[in-house]
Structure formats: C-alpha cells, structure tokens
Write a structure and sequence with these properties.
Elements lengths: L9 H6 L18 H17 L3 E2 L5 E3 H9 L3 H4 L4 E3 L5 E4 L4 H10 L9 E10 L11 E10 L4 H17 L5 E7 L6 H13 L7 H9 L10 H7 L11 H16 L5 E2 L11 E10 L5 E9 L3 H4 L7 E7 H10 L5 H4 L3 E5 L2 H16 L4 E3 L6 H10 L4 E5 L1 H6 L1 E6 L5 E5 L3 H26 L1
The site of adenosine monophosphate has 17 residues, from strand 6, strand 10, strand 11 and helix 12.
Length: about 450
Amino acid sequence: MGRKPLKKTSGQSKRKKQRLQTVRGMRDILPVEQPYWQKLKKVVDKVAADYNYNRLEFPIVENVELFERGTGKDTDIVDKEMFKFKTKGGENVCLRPEGTPSVIRAYLQHGMNSQPKPVKLFYRGPMFRYDRPQEGRYREFFQFGFEAIGEKDAILDAQMIQMAMRIFKSLKIKNVSLHLNSIGCEECRPSYNKLLISYLKNRKKSLCMDCKRRLKTNPLRILDCKEEKCMQVVRQAPQTVDHLCSSCKKHFTSLLEYLDEIEVPYLLKPQLVRGLDYYTKTVFEFFAEDDEGRQSALGGGGRYDYLVEVLGGPATPAVGFACGMDRIVNLMKENNLLPQAEQSPKIYLAQLGDLAKKKSLKIFEELERAGIMVAESFGRGNLRTQLRQANKIKAEIVLIIGQREALDGSVILKDMNSGGQEVLPADKIIKEVKKRLKKNAELLKKHEKKTRRKK
Ligand code: AMP
C-alpha cells in the first residue's frame, strides 16, 4: 500500500530553484583541462625567463579612457566590444579588452621609464570582449603577451616573433605560419592614406557600411575588413610596403634579414594592418592550420612607437605581441599535445588505518617536494579500492603504508609493472622511487625507439 506523499513545506519549495548557468560567452575551466593550461603557463614563463622578461600583473578593471586613447575609440574592441560600466562613485570603467595599454599605463605610473631600456615585461590573464560567442571565441578569454619598451631596433621585433615561435614549438604545435607587413609611420602614412582614400573613394559603393565610415575615420582599417565585398575591392588597392619612407623601409628590411638569420619563414601580407590604432611599422599575426586546412588566429602584435607618448609619457619606441591561450589550449587538446608524463601521476600512495594515514601525509609531502607527482585517496580506508584506483590511473609504483609499516617506519613498495613488492625504510623511499622512475623512463624510451624503427 502506497503511502501518501508528504506535503512540501514552504522552505522546500523555496529551495527548489532553477540551476544557474555561466553568463553567455563565459565558461568554467574544469580540472580535467587544467594540465593543458598548466603546461602552457609553464612554457610561457620559461620563455619569459630565458629572454629576461619580467611578469607584470595589472587590474582587470581600468579606466575607459585608457583604451579609448590607447587602443583607439574607433576600433572594434573599444567601440563595439568593451564591457563598460559606471562605478558607484561615478567613474567610467571597463573590463580590460587587451593588455598593451595597461602595460604602458603601469610603465609610466611606476616610473619604469627611468630603468635601462628596453624594459621587458610580460603578462598573462583574462581579457573581455563583448563579441558574438562561437567556437574558439569567448567573451572572457585569456591572453599572454610580451612587450619591450624603449628600443627601436628591428632586432626586438624579431625577438618577439622568435619567442612566440619558441612557445609554439615547445608545445609541439605544428603548421604555424607567420603573416607579416609594415604599415609605416607618421611620416609615410599620411601620403599613403591619401593614395588609399582616392583609390577607395572611386569604389565607395562596393564597401560595407562600416568601411564607408572608416573612409573618413581610419581608411587603413578597410584593408583588413572581413566582408567579402570589401576584400574584393582591397585586393587591387595600393600596398603600404610600396609607400614606406626610407627609415620604415630600412627597418622592415632589417627585420626580414633577422628572420632569415634565425630561419623563421614568413608570408608577406599587404592587407595585414591589425585592428588597433597604435601600430606603426611592423605588424604580424600567427595562424595555425589544422588537418582540414582551417586557419585559426593564435596571436599577433607589432611595433607601437607612439603609444607611450599618447598615454602621456616621453617619446618611446616599443614592440610587443599577444596570443590567445584558449585557442592554443584547444589546439593542444585536439592534437593530444600533452606528454604522458604530465597527464597523470606515476606514484600512488595507499594507506590503511589512522596512524598510517598520518604517516602517508608526510610521505606525500616529501614526494611532492622532490617534484614527484603523486596520487592518493586519503578518504578511503579500503586497500582493494585504493589499488583499483592506482590501476585506473596507470600508476607505475604503489606505496602502501599499513598499521605495521606505520609503527616500524617502513613502506611497502609495489611495482605495478612486475607485480613484485618489497618493504623499505620510509627514509629511503624517495631515493628508491626516483631510481625506479628513471629506470622505467629509460626502458620506455628504448621501447619507443624500437617501435619507431620497426615502422
Ligand atoms: P588580438 O588582441 O585581437 O590581436 O588577439 C590576439 C589573440 O587573442 C587572437 O589571435 C586570438 O587567439 C585571441 N583572441 C582574441 N579575441 C578572442 C576571443 N574573443 N576569444 C578567444 N580568443 C580570442
């Protein structure tokens, strides 16, 4: 006989609410994805250290004016995509859409311009753009960026490209192409703009609405409009590289020579201008091609010799680039670019009983300190469940501490490959684990070599 269901109390019905979701265009980065992000951050930090770039962290919230003046009022990321709001105190602030203006603001605010030049800085963190979300395009996304402030030599432009390429190479990302152009300076751009405007004015009818407006505000930007009809018009347009002043020409030629020297191939792209106002001379972008030939923009940058001045500092040349971390992580995932070693720990720590639990906490700490990744499930008391777990993560070695081992200061070492086990003094365990892991890695290397030869 069924019992009558109890009536819901008002408290229960209040609690049963719809589950909340992330805001459109924003997403969680789950624990399973973290190894990819960790790997990427590690590689970025390593390259930064190798090339002497120091980490700078700046606020997510900045004054709207910083980007209106720095990036440009008429650029898409400022005009259309910025998350803007007023604080309770009435300040006009925004969520940062990019890093470069903040870096220069910080550089000036903290008197870094008195340091020996170039001042080399790097950053990584979230950026915000209110664009239409789609595959690989989010409203909160992450970038890392490098900036060298105070040097005009094209060798720094080459170094930026070299660092980005080193990061891609370290991550084993293949098929990255470098698109390159020079868009001149204050001296040569006005006469080029005149030429471009007169070419485009005759074809105004074929341009999109935005480009018709840009004809007045920023004609250069028409060159990289993604509308098919504008792209058709632009194909025959005069090219910036053909109208550079002698100093810009020299600068661009030396960059190409440096790139040849470090054997970085490039594609000259006369239509590449980048969407932002501050670029001068060099502009570049990195694209990765997948197996189906689809291109994904990984990052870009260039020289911005006037930005420091625009933001209230002394005339100071500078160059930098930024890359999209989400896109890089997506590529790493698609191509399974995470070395086995970094996917899961090779050691599993199992324990049985309260005293053993305490002892294993110490061993866990020692293993971690020795740089050995170790898995455990301290909450479990059942040895069989723990061994099953160790099998699941494909641990090479299981360390077991039972009541007896906890009392006499020993540890059982179980080799999961051979199945053999032995009892060792707890203070010898780190050394023994290291020795065995090294041996296993050598065996694996030999085995891989053999299979490669057979193929
Ligand atoms: P940008 O600052 O526009 O040159 O962007 C540099 C890189 O950041 C791009 O090449 C992308 O990899 C990445 N990126 C830019 N916007 C987004 C976005 N909305 N979502 C994800 N990644 C982005």
